[in-house]
Amino acid sequence: MRGVIAVLSLLAIAAIGCSQGVTLPKSELLKKPLQTLTAAEADTVIHHYQMVVSDLESQLRRQNQEYDGLQKQLADLKAQLSDCEEQLYQLIGATPEQVEQFRQRLGVLEGKVREYQRYSDDELADRRSEVEKLEDELWALRGMKISLLPEFYNRLAALGSKIKALYKKKKIRTYVVGTWARDRDCLWNIAGKPTIYNDPFLWPKIWLANDDQIRNPDLIYPGQVLKIPPKGPKTPEEIKAERRYWRNKRLQQQAQTEQSEAPAEPSRAE
Q1: CA-CA distance, 92 to 147, in Å (whole number)?
Q2: pTM for this structure?
Q3: Is residue 41 within 8 Å of 22, Cβ to Cβ?
Q4: For residue 21, what pLDDT is reported?
Q5: Which end of the chain has fewer beta carbons closer than 10 Å to its terminal beta carbon, N or C?
Q6: Where are the domains of the chain?
Q7: Does domain 173-259 fall into CATH 3.90.920?
Q8: Strands 173-176 and 225-228, how do they pair?
């Protein structure tokens, strides 16, 4: 709005028809208040801004021409890239759909690896079998010819290094079993000690870590040196072993109940 008022003011001044000439340099004239301009000075200022607008319009036309040229170059490059990809796909005997499936499969694996990178070393040590499955998936992808495409080659190499870094060794501690009378030591109580897991439900971890010397988890003996694996969620193997233990426990209790409830056989007279 201010610009419109300024132009109207200049035109009004020019319409007065004053015959005075322009005596100030243009640089000073442009700084002069509009209300003080003579007709000749207003004409000079208007002409100056007309030249500025004309120059800007010329620059805009050149920029538009350059933009159109760059757009054409980009379209040509995209067409060349598409032709190059098509030739590469033909070399490896793959269709665009198969490449897209490979791309999605690789993306899923990368996401899983990022998730496992958040685990602590102890947690990773307990999840070794899961890390091995990630590595198996990586090798399956590497075995496909699509993995040779430039888009995937470096990503697969980087992913291999990341998976390798997920392999962690367990930090094994030991615990010497005490007596029941003094220490009340059983796997349940040992796992519940604050210095061990502070969680008795993790007792299967100790059992499976020492299955070479503990056949029956209900029986441990004073002086036994037990390996204590790092604290963490129970692994699938530990969960299966715990379920098997409780199943066998129930069967034993049922057998004992049935035996105690069975009627005694009558004694025979000699």
Answers
A1: 10
A2: 0.43
A3: yes
A4: 54
A5: C
A6: 2-72, 96-164, 173-259
A7: no
A8: antiparallel
Q: Using one digit for the tens of pLDDT, what is the confidence trace for 85-135?
A: 788 888 888 999 999 999 999 999 999 999 999 998 878 887 889 999 999
Tell me the C-alpha distance between 47 and 42, whole Å: 8
CA angle 181, 189, 178 (to 5 degrees): 40
Q: Which residues of 153-186 are buried (b: 16+ CB within 10 A; e: fewer)?
A: eebbeebeeebeebebebeeeebebeeeeeeebb
Distance CA(230)–CA(172), nearest Å, equals: 7
44 burial type by CB count under 10 A (0-12 exposed, 13-18 middle, 19+ buried) = middle
The amino acid at 267: S
DSSP string, the chain: -HHHHHHHHHHHHHHT-------S-HHHHTTS-GGG--HHHHHHHHHHHHHHHHHHHHHHHHHHHHHHHHHHHHHHHHHHHHHHHHHHHHHHT--HHHHHHHHHHHHHHHHHHHHHTTS-HHHHHHTHHHHHHHHHHHHHHHTSGGGGSHHHHHHHHHHHHHHHTT------EEEE---HHHH---HHHHHHSTTTTS-GGGHHHHHHHTTTT-SSTT---TT-EEEEPPP-PPPHHHHHHHHHHHHHHHHHHHHHHHHHHSPPPPPPP-
| CA-wise closest residue to 213 among 226, 202, 201 | 226
**N residues, the chain:** 270
